[in-house]
Design goal:
Blueprint (H helix, E strand, L loop, with lengths): L8 E4 L6 H31 L6 H29 L4 E3 H34 L4 H4 L2 H27 L7 E2 L6 H5 L7 H36 L2 H31 L6 H25 L2 H15 L3
Parallel strand pairs: 1-3
Antiparallel strand pairs: 1-2
């Protein structure tokens, strides 16, 4: 019989892991998390301390690394604790915080990648006007707008779920997200479903539309001018951005689609974790290594460290 739950302690379903795989999986995730911390913090410190990197592209890249750190720090440590724990418990407030930061991670990532695409479009198609258009003030304003829009959209999304009365105490997932929160209710969640659909359609439409328009115009300029140097610049600067965007887009799509198929719960959990972990680890590697100034700075620092005194 359904009744209102007054307990603030929730049980997370998590993964069904064989005992022999528990600690190998734990240490694998621990390695992934430390790699993520080391690479993203290293990139942030390098961009902040090196004045030559105080440029629009690197400011945006710094935003991406900050977002990766926050999103994965909220998710991975607790996930690792639940892997080796016999009791997978979480308070309701902790679950709400995790769901909020989880959706902020996805929303802010898409917004920042849209701004990055615009930055690349201006740099390639209007190189002489780049410095006057993409000023530091403009980039900071765009970054603040990306975080602000994400904050408003996600706050409404989570707020609609928090208002519901709970009658269940089991999170049918390995983590907390908005769907997990409103599934704790036995009441009418039609508003949550409608706004959730609106949120998803708006985010993906703006993201895919913005990326498609900018890349189409870049391709058009390259085709019209038939300039090999311009094509090389476009490929060099856009390839990493496009790879990261496609990884995030398809892992996000997979997570959303699998929410509609209860029989594939484990696959959905894995897809969501990959949605967080893969881009966060690949960002510094792919984007950083294909960016000449950042790559040169990293090489210089490494050379200074290993040079004999």
């Amino acid at each position: 019989m359904e009744s209102n739950m007054t307990s603030d302690i929730l049980t997370i379903q998590g993964f069904d892991i064989s005992p022999q795989f528990t600690y190998p999986l734990f240490f694998l995730l621990l390695f992934v998390y430390f790699t993520l911390l080391f690479s993203n913090i290293g990139v942030i410190v390098l961009i902040v301390t090196e004045k030559s990197l105080h440029q629009p592209m690197y400011i945006l890249f710094c935003n991406l690394s900050v977002n990766d750190l926050i999103g994965n720090t909220v998710l991975l440590p607790q996930l690792m604790a639940h892997i080796i724990s016999t009791e997978r418990l979480i308070t309701y407030n902790q679950c709400v915080v995790q769901a909020f930061h989880s959706h902020m991670f996805g929303s802010a990532s898409h917004m920042i990648l849209i701004i990055m695409a615009v930055d690349r479009y201006v740099a390639i198609c209007h190189p002489l006007r780049y410095k006057s258009i993409m000023t530091t003030k403009t980039v900071i304003g765009l970054s603040a707008s990306a975080w602000g829009v994400s904050l408003v959209l996600v706050s409404v999304l989570i707020g609609l779920s928090v208002r519901l009365t709970r009658c269940r105490s089991v999170i049918q997932n390995a983590y907390c997200d908005n769907a997990s929160l409103f599934k704790l209710s036995c009441g009418d969640v039609s508003i949550n479903n409608i706004y959730g659909l609106f949120f998803t359609v708006l985010l993906f439409s703006c993201s895919m539309g913005g990326i498609a328009v900018t890349y189409f115009r870049i391709a058009l300029i390259c085709w019209v001018k038939k300039n090999k140097e311009l094509k090389h610049k476009a490929i060099q600067t856009c390839a990493s951005h496009l790879v990261l965007y496609l990884i995030m887009l398809w892992s996000g799509f997979l997570t959303i689609i699998l929410h509609r198929f209860p029989n594939y719960t484990d696959l959905r959990k894995i897809a969501y974790i990959l949605f967080h972990v893969v881009p966060a680890n690949l960002n510094p590697i792919i984007y950083g290594w294909q960016t000449r100034s950042l790559r040169d700075k990293i090489i210089q620092i490494v050379q200074r460290k290993v040079a004999p005194t």
